[in-house]
Design brief:
The complex is a heterodimer of chains A (251) and B (137). Chain A is an alpha+beta fold. In chain A, 29% of the residues lie in helices and 19% in strands. The chains are: A alpha+beta (251), B alpha+beta (137).
């Protein structure tokens, strides 16, 4: 156990814990856009900046990303100093200029008193803020169908060569974990399209409602070793099936 | 600590759906019984009054836990329940497809899976069942 101070509050942290996790457990609010509990932190959005110092540093302090900075014994963390707020406001100005229609960015910017960014707004800008959640989620937890491509202002998230990916299973994890709803997909009955690839959702064997894609089912069976026979019945019909089995035993 | 389970007694169930209402209010703060985690399988004519309450068995070797790529499903060692950690969930729907019993459900409005977590050891459905068709023991 380590002891440190966050905003004047004495808190305890386990070895290897990051400042963000410690602060959130203590109910101290730090804004993030690129944080997702399921994947390793990336420090991409720069919103979780906090100021850290130590008594022996003679008043010197440094700005660090709370999501990537490990808790240390005796550290003094300040999450709401003027220097921190100025940095966060600057980041939000840039994010809002880049993605003016992203709801999560607008909400956070408004909290920090920004409605119109001081930088020229990219009117054609999409909602992607390159937070890397989708690529981390897909890369480490699913099949690794997408990654960041290009450099500098041309950087974006895409499948290799913008072609329909061989390995994408159409699970929608990327789109659903995106904080700014930047990943387009469409669902029409039993058809699902994402990243330029079309998938057929397997209809429920009982009622015909959409279940999962055949690709996702195969991936789950192969990688996770889950029996495939239950995949293609929808949750509501499985309840009916369970009830029926119970009735057969009871009456 | 020995973990307790929800026991259902279909012969006592009148399909009043109080449990569904209680569950929906407790977890979603709205009276939307179709989004309840306990379901009375009783609505069709062919059931002939033989109502079965379907609720998560908290399986030892749970298919939902095995299927989850994000480790968003965990065993609560205090209650024995498998609970769903929404912050870790990537919403791929694997758990819903994997559960053989239909006890892992997809919430279409929020686009999240949901399951019975035994209400941290005090299941509300038990308290609201007027006939004692659900017991927690």
């Amino acid at each position: 156990m380590m002891r440190l101070t966050i905003d004047g509050k004495r808190v305890e942290a386990r070895n290897g814990e990051y400042l963000l996790a410690v602060a959130r457990r203590e109910g101290i609010e730090i804004p993030t856009l690129c944080h997702h509990e399921a994947v390793e932190p990336a420090g991409a959005c720069r919103l979780c900046m906090v100021e850290v110092t130590r008594p022996q540093w003679d008043g010197w302090s440094k700005l660090v990303t709370a999501c990537l900075y490990p808790a240390e014994d005796g550290l003094i963390v300040k999450t709401r100093t003027e220097r921190v707020m100025k940095t966060r406001r600057e980041v939000l100005e840039l994010l809002l200029a880049r993605s003016p229609r992203a709801e999560a960015v607008r909400r956070l910017a408004a909290q920090y008193g920004i409605t119109e960014p001081k930088y020229s707004v990219d009117e054609g800008g999409d909602n992607c803020i390159l937070c890397d959640i989708c690529t981390r989620v897909c890369g480490t937890l699913v099949t690794g169908a997408i990654s960041r491509v290009n450099r500098g202002v041309a950087k974006k998230v895409a499948t290799p060569f913008d072609e329909a990916s061989d390995v994408c299973v159409g699970c929608l994890s990327c789109a659903r974990s995106c904080p700014t709803d930047a990943i387009a997909f469409s669902e029409d009955g039993l058809k699902r399209t994402i990243w330029g690839k079309s998938f057929d959702l397997v209809p429920c064997a009982v009622c015909g409602a959409a279940t999962v894609t055949a690709e996702q089912a195969r991936w789950m069976a192969e990688k996770k070793g889950v029996a495939e026979k239950d995949f293609f019945v929808c949750d509501a019909c499985k309840v009916g099936r369970t009830g029926q089995a119970c009735r057969k035993v009871m009456w | 600590m020995e973990s307790k389970l929800l026991h259902v007694f279909p012969e006592k169930c009148t399909a009043c759906r109080n449990c569904e209402q209680a569950c929906a209010f407790a977890h979603l703060h709205e009276g939307r019984p179709t989004r309840s985690r306990i379901r009375a399988d009783a609505d069709s004519q062919q059931r002939e009054g033989k109502n079965v309450l379907v609720v998560c068995y908290q399986c030892d070797a749970a298919a939902c836990v095995a299927a989850c790529p994000a480790k968003a499903l965990w065993r609560d060692l205090r209650t024995g329940a498998v609970y769903h950690l929404e912050d870790r969930c990537i919403r791929c729907g694997s758990c819903v497809a994997a559960c053989p019993f239909g006890n892992m459900r997809w919430e279409p409005l929020r686009q999240y899976p949901s399951k019975c977590d035994l209400c941290n050891g005090d299941p509300v459905c038990v308290r609201f069942c007027p006939t004692g068709a659900i017991l927690y023991k």
